[in-house]
């Protein structure tokens, strides 16, 4: 590949070179392997390498919009038949996928070559990627910081240039948060737009959606073209989209639009001035383009959103731990998982069916409020996160917290902790850094993070944009326009790699 710089191309750019026979898929795979072997020891982004399978695939006749392009999958839910998939937990170390996920099947049809699987926090439960079994993934912009989570390994791999595209999913911000921390484009689709099966008909009660992390808007749009559509057994279906997401991503918005924005945390916590400025700068830019821009908060109760999100979170963790019996051949114990995971499960066991149903009703109430809001405003803009990425280990529980978690876990005191108000404390501590992203998961709306600002220390700052359910096309149109602005971060110039 003399005179060819792999990192200069996005996924569609590499596919075009393959189509023109200017490069062979195997050459792309070998370059991706070279970069992975060079960079992964510093990043710890990839935990399962599939080199021989990738080489075999690259030697076959490949068709589709991404024919021959190396891609990484996330180590949870994105199964490949016969491959180990661990969800970042030692409990799954001996588990092998029984079939391709529908997500992986559709990517195969798009022509990609699977290179391996990326690191995730245990069961994708938190917004940093530091699983006890695999160790922390580091941010390519600054190795002392987290790339976020739960799609942190995917974000680090794309931001460092190992691959142009990596699989991701988002149940509370897990696409958008790593995108914001790593200077990438990250779109969470509308509920039911992309497949989550066949093992499940719904993921996190519909809060979680599958998609990708990319450096360019057009790669994300073309991937959405490849992934979207009805799924047999899926619990939800998004409003059908008959056009091409790739085409709309390159089409300017036809009319002057109405935009609302807020720089306030929905749970009343602080927001770093740099992250408020990222939104304000974007608002000024959009206003200069002739759009109507108003500062106004979303018409929802942020505290109720946080509490209903956590109710689902606890319940899903408890159900997951119960289902480990099918994997382990026995009931799970505290020693099978990380202490915080076990504690979350105990809180889930202490949550009643009544509480769970009432929390889901809160989702529906918020969805109606936001749909009504979007009858006036096309977009709602906030910071993606409230603070820069934490340093590696910064969010680890303190010694006293670890003692409390261990004691509670051994004695099974989840109910007592709930009554003592520990849920509210967990909400404040864990959501203070990332209070903006959960709303779109509960309402089912599409939302994206755009790399439009940077801290004085050189770390990326994401700006989140939400639209009405089913309107990924509007988000991609806006993203395509803003990608041409001077504010869009050039990752090739700024990332350490």
UniProtKB/TrEMBL annotation:
Domain Amidase: from-to ranges: 27-476
Matches recorded under Gene3D superfamilies: Amidase signature (AS) domain
PROSITE patterns the record matches: AMIDASES
MF terms in GO: catalytic activity
Pfam families named in the record: Amidase
Signal peptide region: none
Similarity comment: Belongs to the amidase family.
Entries under PANTHER family matching the protein: GLUTAMYL-TRNA(GLN) AMIDOTRANSFERASE SUBUNIT A, MITOCHONDRIAL, TRANSAMIDASE
Protein name: Amidase
Organism: Mesobacillus boroniphilus
